[in-house]
Design brief:
The protein is α/β, with parallel strands linked by helices. Helix content is 43%, strand content 14%. It contains 14 helices and 13 strands. It has a 7-stranded mixed sheet with strand order 2-8-7-6-5-3-4, with helices on both faces. It has a 4-stranded antiparallel sheet with strand order 9-10-13-12. Strand 9 and strand 10 form a beta hairpin. The chain is globular and about 60 Å long. The termini are far apart.
Length: 395
């Protein structure tokens, strides 16, 4: 028989699925996949449940129900001073992953070049390639994840159509600074390029860091498509409600891509998310403070075991260097080892690179209950205490 799509066939099962299945098999605590283990705010869930019985369960408008589009526009203005027309500039999607795909579909033609920053979320590169575009990779290096400006500038050229930017960044936890964003904006303007901005962790920022949408910078409003996620903002990842803010001329084309992907998103969930976006500042501040405390708990525990934990200013994740523990294998082997023998699952950071990558870092998710984080630290501590004599003997 003729072969199926070669790119998709070659991708195989994602490392997230592999490690989550391994965690289930071994009864491990799953600190690999980034989802909370408690539900989000009760009033938002109640709003979704009530909306199921209000007689509006047929197809909603393609671009989203008016309530949510208005709420997204209001949130743009409230948090960042970005003005957006809810009737023309907002598209609601079935999750941020669909939003990213729809934006790339709307902007790219075969042969266009796309600048991508490694480490990167695992869907970016396959979608770019499926669309026939050419990726140009720029790498951030641990432990500081500093933007390599000369490399980034060199990646831009006459065929550059867009930059795909993730801030706050998964898996690094990096929040791009105003100065870095200004440099990026200058490159986009000089090369007449667009930016697709994955900002799903926009409200999950710590230690006084400030999330600045690239769209809010001078001359960037007409060049950017900005993506948000109700799943991350309200700890309801299974709902898969994303939203895009884009200039009118781009939003219309993005909507056509969305039409050919999912067409629309469940109306009751959309109306509930609109309730969430209208919540007062205390909710958003409390979300960040709660996650910062969880990050500190996990980071302290990993450090006490012997990991070198890298700073994280945003997202659900910490990156930890396990080389001080004396493990001889690479990051994939390490994550399998601790899942199977310590009962704690993590994700190898090399999974976020397209080619050769650092092989001694693991990503741990801290968006879990405090007792779960405590138990994970206890299991890892016991495991590495037990294996320390073996490592010493091997030395």
């Amino acid at each position: 028989m003729k072969s199926p799509n070669q790119l998709l066939d070659a991708i195989g099962t994602t490392i997230f699925t592999v490690m989550s299945a391994l965690a289930v098999q071994h009864g491990a605590i799953n600190l690999g996949q980034g989802f909370p283990d408690t539900d989000g705010p009760a009033d938002i869930i109640d709003a979704a449940a009530n909306a199921l019985r209000d007689g509006r369960n047929q197809y909603p408008p393609l671009a989203g129900v008016p309530e949510l589009r208005q709420a997204v526009a209001a949130a743009n203005d409230r948090f960042y001073g970005i003005k957006a027309d809810p009737g023309t500039d907002i598209i609601v999607t079935s999750g941020a992953t669909e939003a990213i795909t729809a934006c790339l579909m709307a902007l790219l033609d075969p042969g266009d070049e796309v600048v991508l920053i490694e480490p990167l979320y695992d869907t970016y590169l396959p979608v770019v390639k499926l669309l026939g575009a050419v990726p140009r990779l720029v790498r951030l290096n641990p432990p500081d994840w500093v933007l390599p400006r000369a490399d980034l500038e060199a990646a831009f050229g006459p065929r550059t159509k867009l930059l795909l930017l993730n801030s706050p960044m998964n898996p690094t936890g990096k929040v791009f600074s105003a100065d870095e964003l200004g440099f990026i904006a200058g490159l986009l303007a000089r090369h007449d390029a667009y930016a697709v901005c994955d900002e799903v962790y926009e409200h999950l920022i710590f230690d006084g860091a400030k999330h600045i949408p690239l769209m809010s910078l001078p001359r960037m409003r007409e060049r950017c498509a900005r993506i948000g996620s109700a799943g991350k903002t309200f700890s309801l990842t299974g709902w898969k409600v994303g939203y895009i803010t884009a200039p009118r001329h781009l939003a219309a084309i993005i909507a056509r891509a969305h039409q050919n992907l999912t067409f629309t998103t469940p109306p009751n969930l959309q109306r509930a998310v609109a309730v969430g976006l209208a919540k007062d500042d205390a909710y958003f501040e409390g979300l960040a403070a709660d996650l910062a405390a969880k990050r500190d708990c996990l980071s302290a525990g990993l450090s006490a075991i012997g990991f070198q934990v890298l700073p994280t200013a945003g997202s659900y994740f910490v990156t930890a260097d396990f080389s001080p523990l004396g493990f001889a294998g690479d990051d994939t082997a390490f994550c399998r080892q601790i899942t199977e023998h310590a009962g704690v699952a993590a994700i190898p950071v090399s999974a976020f690179y397209a080619g050769e990558a650092p092989r001694h870092y693991a990503r741990f998710a801290f968006c879990k209950r405090d007792d779960v984080l405590d138990e994970a630290i206890s299991r890892l501590s016991a495991h590495f205490r037990a294996t320390a004599p073996l490592r010493a003997a091997g030395d």
